[in-house]
Fold this protein.
Amino acid sequence: MDFKSKIKGRGAQKNIHNRFFELSHEIRDDFLEFCEKEGEIADKNKTQYLNVFPKTIVNKVTSPDVGMAYSMNMYQGCEHGCIYCYARNSHEFWGYSAGLDFERKILVKKEAPKLLEAHLKKKSWKAQTIVMSGNTDCYQPAEQQFELTKQCLEVFLKYKHPVGIITKNALILRDIEILKALAEDHLIAVNISITSLSERTRRVLEPRTATIKRRLQVVKALSDQGIPVNVMLAPIIPSINSHEILPMAKAVADAGAFGISHTIVRLNGAIGEIFTDWIHKTMPDRAAKVLHQIESCHGGTLNESDYGKRMHGEGQIAQQINDMVRLARLKYFKNKAMPPLNTALHESYKDGQLKLF
């Protein structure tokens, strides 16, 4: 198999047309030839951080099958560059491409901690778990510079409010003391995403994420400190990582995870074109096979939008994947479950300190 990345360190290999724009931007071969002759760089492949100023930060999730009621995202776009990421489509709403722009134009919400605090202090707000990274990873590389996730965790701790985290970045260990304090009152649940035990596969699927070894260390470090961890084996992609379900489940169970969850890859919206271009460039020997097997899980198309079907698919291959996950749970997670989060404390801490009367 030949894993070759045309654009170093990126998942998507091109920018695709934004469906909301009438005009499109194209890099022509004659321009590339001109740059080469002149010794100029046609594409510097740099990441840009762009400030944006939303009025709110907490979003109600209306989709019934994503496992969360409220989410918040300090960053839009994600430098991790996971080729399959469903969040790519959301970048089009900001006026950018779901391809390379999603990885290289990161929108930063510097007012996120203040907006969160204002939300938690509302008299009308009744505590429900708010998940950070409902769309993009709250511990992506931008967090090293801006520390918005850390500041938001401090807000959750101050107001004794339950919070969930989804990440695939080891930077979460920077905040382990805050997470331990939240865990003392059952206010935190962490979901670590692990899609393969193969570094070779990880590098092409998720080019700027933490290594698999490091992620397993994160699961163990958090678990050892009493911080509950679930591992998301997501997405499962037929003929890429579908054969790793049992080994992955064993590895995360050995590291102390409470459980696993999974989805089968679905290439909705612009992601179908991005993924198809990527797999023909990085895995040409198996591209057709993988695409056909994904289609077989979604009624003959790369995308399935129907609630109840889209996450776990249908058909023989999907059934085999789902059965294997059930077997993994029985084998490695019997009588284990993530503990419920505490929603009872927040009302007494609406002003940031315990109300005595």
Remarks:
- The longest strand covers residues 229-236.
- The chain has twelve helices and ten strands.
- Residues 61 and 163 are 15 Å apart (CA to CA).
